[in-house]
Hints:
6% strand; 12 helices; three-stranded antiparallel beta sheet
Amino acid sequence: MPAEPPTTPAVRAIEAAAAEGRCTNCEAPLPQPRPAFCPACGQETRIAAPTLHEFAQQFGGAYFSTEGALWRTLRLLLTQPGELTRQYLAGRRKHFVLPLRLYLSISLVLLLMVQLMGQITVVEGLDRPELAIAERGPLPNAVLDVQGRRMGLRAGVFVCEGLPTLLCQLVHERAAPDTRTYLQRLRAANERVVSHLGVVMFVLLPLFAACLKLLNARRGMPYTAHLVFALHLHSFWFLVLLAMQLLQPPLAWAGLPVIVVYTLLAGRRVYGGAWWARLLRGLALTAMYLLLLLVTLPLAWLLALLI
Ligand SMILES: [Zn+2]
């Protein structure tokens, strides 16, 4: 068993409340026999790791519990890496905005911002002047060249090199019957991929949580506990990305070391273990995540191109 993760006074207080049969949310004493919900604050008194059903329930109800809960949640998320996850898993639920709700709200703001600023371009160079001419001209040429893989129309003939045959067929049939259609499809795909990002994240997040479980298997925590941590981590990352969108490039790059340091600190608080081990897990996690992104992002773009 690796070293216990470091604890905080708040987490100790929650654990003490649980041990003494008090409410883990507001720490009020509970009557005997124990009711299903705390008479003081209304949180349920059973505090096993959250079930998938509980996650689903977070969709319903008021969007934010209260404004106070929102600021409390954001403050803890921003100032103490991993602490929000620890307190949630220890049993303090109603006190904060629930993980899925927090994540959905922040990602919604980020997606809106990205869409407004239009800064995501999967296929670049579509505004080249010769492409604008090709779109109108008599001898249409529009070939995309990405590291030796070519796809497009040359003198009106479809070319597809260095790519799977099935993919070539699909693109030819669905998106490239002629140059004008092809260029319009490419532009539309660039725009639509942003609206597909939300869907991509919904696929990536459970996979990311699975990576966390794999890397921290010895902790024996249930999958949903890793999912809570994944939601909190992404909420923080998205907040940093939001800030990076607002700042100018030299200053905005400061967001990247912030993300790395925060993630290491949060990982240590939630899972514990020696620093070198956390660093190794961090590296492995980054590699796994990049691989997942490398597969899902082009897939989302292809879907946007073909459908
Ligand atoms: Zn209570």
